[in-house]
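Two entries, shown back to back:
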Amino acid sequence: MAHQSGIRVSENLSAVFVDALASGSVRAIRVNIAGEALEATATHPAQSDFEQDFAGIGDLLHATEPSYLLVRLDAGADADADGSGQGAAGAKWLLCTYVPDSAAVRAKMLYASTKASLTKSLGESYFVDEIFGTTRDEFSLDGYRQHRRHVESSAPLTERELEMQRIKDLESSAAEAPTMDSRRSHVADRKLSMADDVAQALGEYASGSVNLVMLVFDFISESFVLDRKGSLQSHEELARAVPADEPRFVLYWYDSSTSVFVYSCPADSNIRHRMVYSAFKYGFLATMQKMGVKVDVKLEVDAPAADLAPAALADE
């Protein structure tokens, strides 16, 4: 599994983040580690433009308690200012990691080792900038401006960084592209259009007629298409059914009452493919909710053969 510290995004945080993506009315979400989960513990509304709202972000931080702040760069008065219509799929977020010097050593280690899991679970493509700080002053508007001056005066991008930027540009255009049929997908509306065979397969899954539905993104038609549907006879078959080298969205009935969504993102798969799936993950889950397709457990795996083995599934 792709959770470096074993600490995972809670249902609460997932719901708060999805709502923030859809509404554009939230400027910042404070995230704290509580037990074995990442929880949304406070929000700051998008009341004006980014700079005016950011001036009050530091009030969310406590002097001795580490926190993450997820700050939306294009919410409120900034939302869709360019008229692109990208909505939630094109949303841009700033990740702030606040770890005061006075924090306990264990807390410092947990926040350092959990950051990658946080962004990967919520969708890496959303996070276009990052700040780390040990004092609240570093998360003031002056602190942010100083950070941006440093970033903009840094050395030219490496070839790898240029490739990542091209991927982000691709995802932004994907928000405008047809998905699952000739109609457009507006993730901000929390639904996706889909072809008849996909909708039919999901209906069969919801009714229990089949226990497996797997979707793949077709880069030629720029749409999600049905890869496989059917009924597996044992949990052992699931790990074999999911490709080890390409991403997939998978719905699987673990038992008669537990529906599992798997975002399979193999570590060795094409990075462009991984980023596109990441961009569509929350829109897909929102569509399942709208369609009445039950999802009890959400998994993100990077080694499906191991992560979806019966013993690993039982642990979930």
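entry 2 starts here
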Amino acid sequence: MKTLAILVLCGLAYVCISASTGASDSTVSKSDSPTDEGVFVKKDEADTLMRQKRAGTDPANLSIAQLEALREVCEANLACEHMMDTSGIIAAYTAYYGAIPY
């Protein structure tokens, strides 16, 4: 049984290897060959392929989870926590830690 499995795997490997070498002998034009193009693309071509980064989220549109994360950071600083209670989490976070990272 093991011998049969090994023979089947060897035959499959032979078919795969012969098919991949046979494809290089076929009538593939030089412009269609992927080895000529390379991995890198020009910047203007890459701009059309890649999605541009969005600007930061408006502080009024932050989710509950994002606000909670800001609150946890601000609670570690007593002055920030006091300002958070009086002025709000967004004002306190930006005053002590700078721009909101979301």
